[in-house]
Each structure stands twice: as structure tokens, then as C-alpha cells.
Amino acid sequence: MEAGKRIPVFGDGSTGRDYTYVEDIVAGVLAAVDYEPSGDALFDIVNLGNSHPVKLSDLIEELERAIGKKATRDTQPAQPGTFPLPGPISAKRGAC
What we know:
alpha+beta; two-stranded parallel sheet
């Protein structure tokens, strides 16, 4: 954005992801390798995401504020298999 390059936006920007630092995921994977389940469990499910998905459009707007420059969006068709974030349901993901 700072260089004036167009930002590809697939769909309307309502899709979202858990944006996580690569170093945090690596640390989580390494910790999971050494993890021993307690009790009679043969395994445990380990979620390395943060369960706080961010809409792509919100991320771009936050970057615009931080950089102080408006993004030039290159709108593309939505990618197959992507869906908009569901409002109330996304807040309950961590409880499952």
C-alpha cells in the first residue's frame, strides 16, 4: 500500500481469517509435539488459531489508518470455497 500498489480483494471483503504470526504457529506446533494428553485420552485437539477472525475489509481499513494512505483495491471474483464471516456464530467458535 505504501508503494501505491493495488491490493487484490477477492469478493466484497466480507471473508475473514485468523491472522496469526508465523512464529506463534511454529511455537504452537513445537509445543504440541511435546504435549502429553492427560488421563485416558489418546489425543487432544489443539487449535493454533486465535478464534478471532478479522474481515478482510476491516484489515485493509485498519492498515489505511495506520499508514495514513488510502488503499487502491483490485476487486477480483470471490475465490471458490470462501464464505463471508457469520456475525454472531463467529463469536462462539472458541466455545466449541
